[in-house]
Amino acid sequence: MARQQLAVLDALDVAKTQWYHFTAIVITGMGFFTYVYDLFCISIITKLLGRIYYTKKRAASPGILPPNVSAAINGVAFCRTLAGQLVFGLLGDKLGRKKVYGMTLMIMVFCSIASGLSFGSSPKGVITALCFFRFWLGFGIDGDYPLSATIMSEYANKKTRGGFIVAVFAMQGFGILGGGIFSLIVSAGFKNNPFHRRLIMFGAIPAALTYYWRMKMPETARYTALVAKNVSQATKDMSRVLLVDLETEQSQDKSSMEKVGKEEQVSFGLFTKQFANRHGLHLLGTTTTWFLFDIAYYSQNLFQKDIFSAIGWIPSASTMSTLGEVYKIAMAQTLIAICSIVPGYWFTVFFIDKMGRFAIQLMGKENRIGFVVMYSLNFFFANFGPNATTFVVPAEIFPARLRSTCHGISVAAGKAGAIVGAFGFLYAAQSKDPVKTDPGYPTGFGMKNALIVLGVTNFLGMVFTFLVSEPNGKSLEELSGENEDEGSDIKVDRPTTTSAATRTVPL
Questions:
Q1: 43, 301 contact by CB (below 8 A)
Q2: Alpha carbon distance 282, 296 (integer Å)
Q3: Residues 404-421: pLDDT tens digits?
Q4: What are the residues facing 2 on neighbouring strands?
Q5: Measured between alpha carbons, how far is 16 from 160 in angstroms, rounded to an integer?
Q6: Three state DSSP letters for 300-344
């Protein structure tokens, strides 16, 4: 049996887009800027560290990181992300989104700066310090994933919710672009080795600037009303946010709302038969699609420099200086970001609420110039496709009391795929000819065959997409079944007079 929606939630669903939505996008999105800035700068940093600390005297070619060191630097942040997503996702549902939101940002800022300091002068000391702080950086960064997605989904209106959530995620595109541009600047402006430290630390600045506003954001109305059972506080918070007097409009059913906490019954949890029946296939769909997609996506991003070199777009390292190599790699990454990654994100922002999540996710799935064009289109349709939708859907289809947790589980599965890609592609892409492999690496499948394997994983991700329902145009309560009898209904006696549910919030 369906129940009526609380008026404060109705007001959010029908609210017109206003300035607060855009500030929320920036505030929640800066964590993603820092995350991706660090992730894509590390591709350049590994090249620099190889030259600075592992070049042998009188060697014909510049040094590269040993296989175990390269795998550690690329993979260590991912290892801790699994814990970060699960821990902060669970805390977001247990303590509230806002209470744990500031923690993730401060961890990111501190560890980004500390990664740049990388205490020590010996190769072992620098690499150990870098890995330690990147380990904790990953813990904070991916704790931000479920919280940011959940907060934006619960603040947004029904009509443009998908676009708002993707806009938060699209800050990743600016992080990539920022990493490339700042790399170009430092490679031209600094002539000494420590410039790689400045490159790492810069990403912390934009995130640190948003801390104050992140702490000023009120708790989401859906958490306060549906989980904390404090509808009156939710109404006060949203009246202030939406600049409309919801308290006056809801005065007639105030007494009914105050009974919510008293009438609360036990709701089904994550590890129950009820959850499995209602949302089991949904969770399987969000985890498998994200896992399979991230194997391919992170493999290509983390090892862009190797792909560019393999196709001859970047000259051999032995023909370039340290600064010259940084400049070439940064230029290539920046061009890819401008031409494909950033546009892909914003195509999704503009079309996701028109086309739907399902269609976009399915759609995303030896000539050097031709390869570069196709490679760019791959990133375009990754971001105008599953890279965005895998982030959006878990923030919409689960109940409020489990939304952050389920999003954390989904993104943890994605980062498990990223770990497989980070470690597996490193070895799989090595040449089948032992003479042509990088020093210290065994033979692999070759770059061509490794990319074919990544294509197969994308196809499997497309298949598992069919397990996920289409959330477009529906309220969060419709999607999660919270408007139906499930043993924890919030029952509100509705007057027949006009309320906030029928009013469109003004600009």
A1: yes
A2: 22
A3: 999 999 988 888 888 887
A4: 484
A5: 9
A6: HHHCHHHHHHHCCCCCCHHHCCHHHHHHHHHHHHHHHHHHHHHHH
| Rounded distance between C-alpha atoms, residue 166 and residue 50, angstroms | 36
pTM: 0.77
Q: Token digits for 204?
A: 């912390």
For CA atoms 53, 55, 56, 57, give the dihedral sign. negative
Instruction: Record the tokens describing residue 21, joined without a space.
Output: 């939505």
Residue holding tokens 């050097």? 368
Q: What angle do CA 419, 172, 480 make, to 5 degrees?
A: 80
| Distance of alpha carbon 435 from alpha carbon 392, whole angstroms | 45
Tens digit of each residue's pLDDT (9 = 90 or more) over 327-373: 777 787 788 788 888 888 888 899 998 888 878 887 765 444 555 56
Convert the pLDDT of each residue in 70-124 to its tens digit.
777 766 766 766 778 888 889 999 988 888 888 888 888 888 888 877 666 778 8
How many residues appear in the chain? 507
**Residue with structure tokens 């061009």?**
335
- Buried residues in 324-357 as b, exposed as e (16+ CB within 10 A): ebbbbbbbbbbebbbbbbbbbbbbbbebbbebbb
Burial of 132 (0-12, 13-18, 19+ CB in 10 A): middle
Longest CA–CA span in the chain (Å) reads 87
